[in-house]
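assembly run, all chains below
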Amino acid sequence: YCLSGHPTLPCNVLKFKSTTIMLDCGLDMTSTLNFLPLPLVQSPRLSKLPGWVLKDGSTFLDKELKECSGHVFVDSVPEFCLPETELLDLSTVDVILISNYHCMMALPYITECTGFTGTVYATEPTVQIGRLLMEELVNSIERVPKAQSASMWKNKEVQRLLPAPLKDAVEVSMWRKCYTMPEVNAALSKIQMVGYSQKIELFGAVQVTPLSSGYALGSSNWIIQSHYEKVSYVSGSSLLTTHPQPMDQTSLKNSDVLILTGLTQIPTANPDGMVGEFCSNLAMTVRNGGNVLVPCYPSGVIYDLLECLYQYIDSAGLSNVPFYFISPVANSSLEFSQIFAEWLCHNKQTKVYLPEPPFPHAELIQTNKLKHYPSIHGDFSNDFKQPCVVFTGHPSLRFGDVVHFMELWGKSSLNTVIFTEPDFSYLDALAPYQPLAMKCVYCPIDTRLNFIQVSKLLKEVQPLHVVCPEQYTQPPPTQSHRTDLMIDCQPPPMSYRRAEVLTLPYKRRYEKIEIMPDLADSLVPLEIKPGISLATVSAMLHTKDNKHVLQLPPKPPQAPASKKRKRVSDDVPEGKPPKPLLSGSIPVEQFVQTLEKHGFSDVKVEDTAKGHIVLLQEAETLIQLEEDSTHIICDNDEPLRAKLRDLVLKFLQKF
Amino acid sequence: AAGALDVIFTLQGDPSLFVAAAARRLLVHTLSLSLECEMSKAPGTRVCDWPLCAQMIIKHIEDSLQSSSISHIKQSLKLLAGLFGGCHAPWTEVLWLSVAKQVESFLVEESVQAPHLLVDLLLNMSRSPVFCDSEGNFWALVTSALEHLNPVQAGPLTVGILRLHKCPQDVRIQAVTVLLQPMDCILRAASQPLEYSGLLDESVTDPATVESLLSSKSSCASLLCQTLGHLEKLLSLSHLPVDLPCTSLLRSVVAILQFCNGLLIPASPLGSKISQTLIGCFRVQRAALDVLAVLSERKGCDIPVESFFDVLLSYLESPNTNPVVLKKSFQATSKWLVRLPEMSCFNSQWQITKILQDVFLVLQKRLCSPCWEVRDSSLEFLTILINGLRDQDGFRQTLFSSEVPRLTEDLLEDPESYVRASAVTAAGHLAYIAPESSVAGNQYNKENTVAKLQEIFSTDPEGFPRRAVISIFIKWLKKGYTALLQDTEQFVSKVIQTAERDFDWEVRLGGLELVEVFFVQTLCRLGRPKCHYAPFSPEFTSSVRHNESLQIFCRTKLFGFLFCSLCDCDRPVGQKACDILLAIRSSFYTSNSLKDSLDPEEVGHGIGWLQRTLRQGSLAQNFPTGSSQEVDFQDPESMLLALGTIDLEELHDDLNKSSDHVEKSPQSLLEDILATVGAIEENEADCY
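ok done. output:
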């Protein structure tokens, strides 16, 4: 079941062997781009924007919609596009597996609003950093309460009249306001923390295991397997050497199905090149006396960026330029990153034993080159010096302290805003700030797998089937000639889209059953071919918690002393010895010779599609020999039938 | 003799390549010796008339060629190639006739065996007057080879043919056709039908083989790299005996570059396949940019498309460009930019300015790159541009209104010494063309650059930047950049004093070169003829100016530096100093006025001590560094005396004889290699 249309913020549900497993619950925040930014201090510019008027002059929407440089925005608290809730009853979901902290932002909506009673599994860094992201999100939205809330525009009839992109926005009725901190806490309390390669049994039916995916601290891919089937869920993985533990590829081998999501959103941008671009543009701006604004999440790529800058600033003569990191969770994020040693790449792990902080941002903080603040109020306003570099959220430019800096620095062409997060179109993000004098640089750094890496990965792990979002099965819409930017594998991948249900291409054929030792003891195997022995088993099948056990059948009841009462037990089958089973095949020529030896002189053989028919004309009898059955058809001549049956049985093995 | 020949035949198959090659050479020599020496008259036209030894060799070659063993066939082909390559006597034709049929049969086989050896053989033959002048069969064989070998195998043959000055025109045309086929295919795959006519006349070529090679992932890049490599080689020749269609070639190369960065929307299924293979292929990008660079030097090769510079700019701009590809993009761009003013399609100044503005915007960003290689190549690019375009007003204006000069100045403090060195060179060139500080709007202060360079020269801990500074100083002095130097004499004196203390011998050598330039310029300024070797007029040698120049040299402390350098532990420094002193002497003394009769020990002024010190050469630990020593290097009279009495010729000979610094013999080179890599058995065998 595909509940999200966003390939990098997936939310899928897998029904597998009587379990219902939700794979990630990403929150599509691109919907917020349709809203006006939430400024911390009132912005005269934004408050003066004209209301939107319909072509026919109707003004009934002018309170809800505002116009800015030719674009129309909803003047209300930003809302998010939730995963589908109608496709299946989400209260039946047994477990939710989270692959990384970006893919859990819809968790409170699912666990708190759908009757969900299951468990959520995620690694410790995922939970902790996920909490930080949620806290920052709630904080940035709640601290700017909005008096009004727009809903009229969502009316289907009204929406039709709106200009693009509002007109084309999907599922607007599903858009919801941000959750609250109590909801976040309640949702997070349902998470059970797991470690890489830890095997978790789900109701005895399947086993799930997180594996390192190399993308972010604690990010994981998941293996979901039974005794005979294996489904791998690959979401947000990276093969580059950045701070997290490298990706575990070998455990993905031998999958029946590999679900592939969370590939890079910018397949044409090489992250190394982009980091170079980031540094060059940053240096150029600062040297010209301008400020640099980097809208970012409080965790993830920012660690790598700070590390690159650490190496670069001295050489670029930027030692005296202050770097500010402003986020309600800035401090926790920087500190958390230093304590998750076991989740880091090898190089960083070894530093911990020296002992040294694994990330060099500790040194930047010590030397006062990097300063962090919970918000622009308080200490920051006292320390603030320009030119400077500010890292702050939110990358959508709709809420968070970034709104303030956009308003502050937008008018000067000396300043630059550098977009490093790939989740939002930078032009859409900038739309409500137009006209803008400040320079805009787009350096999206997305370390997730690109299509070349995917093709290598698939060659390496060789899954029988690949299942992926439909976006990955065709070139990007803006570059339709780039056929290299799609998944290329054999057999071709199966694709899914939002609100679609897909039947995965495997058949469950086997189930593992345990045989109790005393039952096994009683078996008498018969070798029918060298190396293959068969035995008939009469036993009782005991099934509990999806585990199947064959036990000795209960002993037959003692023969009653008197024949007066003959009781047939319903519960316990009678312990009659089973009829012997037959195996083998009947060679027609030899069979005919045998018949002739036994006095049947007029034997005639006809070939049929499935075998042979042996005709005994005189006796008006017919013997059908087929691969898996033999029929003797004779008219009311039981002795003849028995005789023929015995002749047939001579050719077969009994056990 | 037969036994000896058999041994040599066997040795052709020796596992050691050296032994096998020596055996082949020996057979070649034996054959030609037996034919040219043993026979008093010219060898007969039949092999059976030849000496026995020659017959045995020919027989061996024939047998090997007919054998089923591929290694024997290869040995014989190599032997034949060696024979025709080294021996151009008329009897080689007789030999050829006896093997021609067999060799021809190799070419028409289903899959050609040892194609590269056949190509070598044909090329060696084509250079021999015996065959290249022949009207008939040989060229038919070459034509057949061009037809039967696949494009990858035929590549080296086409290049070889196109370099020949004696070759039938139709063979040449066919070689061009084979060589250019991949480029033609690219052009057709990249453009809409009828848009361009392609490189070749369609009727001449059957593109099926090339198309199948280009549409396969494994062969596409290597075929293109090979073709581009061949083209680069050919286009770099100053006299190419054939006209290549440069404009179409340029279009094709641009199309390859567009395929490689995904900018080109393919016009055919073949184009889609090529595009898929080439996107991000650094190997092909590098090769294509090399060809693009050499094409800039071809006359009549005009820019075919408006977007030509857009393609180059996209490479310079893209963060995905690999550093080596970026360097090559810079090289190609600089070559084409330097040509811009003379190109007919870019006659509007506005267009040129626009391109330069775009280039400087990119350059600005690249100068701030965190990757030092990129900063370094950017600075080199800037230097090349200044050298090529400094006379263009538009260029200077655009340059100085950009941020580039300021960023270049910043890079003089780069932590990477190579970058500092390149920044020094670029800044030195910038200063040369910078407008006066007084000019309105000029933010570039060249006086700062001079001061900064002098600071680097005396304080930089690495040799490269200091070497770069001295080279720039020499350039400034040569070009008469006196406005910048203000007081040349003081400048030279300061540089000399810093240079003589430098630990880097190349810097000290640079200091001497500066002295040489200064010396020549001073004499010229005082009336010496421009030509270095022209005899001095008596007026000059005896004039007051004569005296004046001596005084200038003394004031700049030039003699102290020169005499000290004679004892430098690095021989090139000593040699240079000696050469300069000899030149100075010749300007003060005519050959017959030398005071040979005077004994240095007797003339006083410490000249005797100087002579003794100099004779000790670099062993002279106590060579004077200040004026408190026995000789006063700033005293004109002493110096004139020293020049006249010290036996500079003898010193010159000694310096040239000594071999402590540079040993040029191959044996010494091999010893050095062995000392570096370790004298293990395998290395010793290689060196042997």
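Residues 513 and 548 of chain A are 5 Å apart (CA to CA).

Residues 124-142 of chain A form the longest helix (19 residues).

not gonna interpret more than that til we talk
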